[in-house]
Amino acid sequence: MEEERLNQAWDYFVAGDLDQARSLMLDLEEVLGESFSFLNLKGYLYLADRDIESARFVFESYLDLARQVGDREQEHIGLHQLAMVYREQADYAQALALIEEEAACLEQYFSEDKLKWSVNHYEQGYLRLKMEQASEALPWMCLSLEAALTGDDLVAQACAYRGLAETYLALEQREAARNHVIKAKSVFLEAGDYLGAEEVEDLLANLV
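-> structure tokens emitted (208 positions)
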């Protein structure tokens, strides 16, 4: 019953109804407060409220719990989510350190999981891009796309194309940027991710 209500809270969050998501979260905290899905939702809600310190505390707790129980899947997720918090603070160096720590976890426990690698490589590239290291970001974005194309996750592929477009734009290679934006939009639409397609449309407008 509680898990169903937690799933409903996630549905509210995804739909943008944050008040309903918060209400359910508060009701469920006593029962599910130590579950990974609950902590993940709680952290995202704090981020939505721009309460960065609380979000960081939640994802630090998430990571600590994963390590206590020896759950490597949740450990790599916790590292990734905590990096996201530091990225929101514009502390890109600390975020990158956590993403590199996640990469070490992937190498040891999930070395054949191409989707996990695609997401990790994307973040490695994106954070370098945010640190104005576009030349260093480019090979990571290429690796992200290469890994994504080995699977059938269209959103991962579209994100990699978008990341390459942003990187080429930063490198002032406008034609390459435009080609990758067009590809990203096409794949987002194929995946049914219309918000993603709309966001890259804004990027395309800068390349006309």
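Residues 141-208 form one domain.
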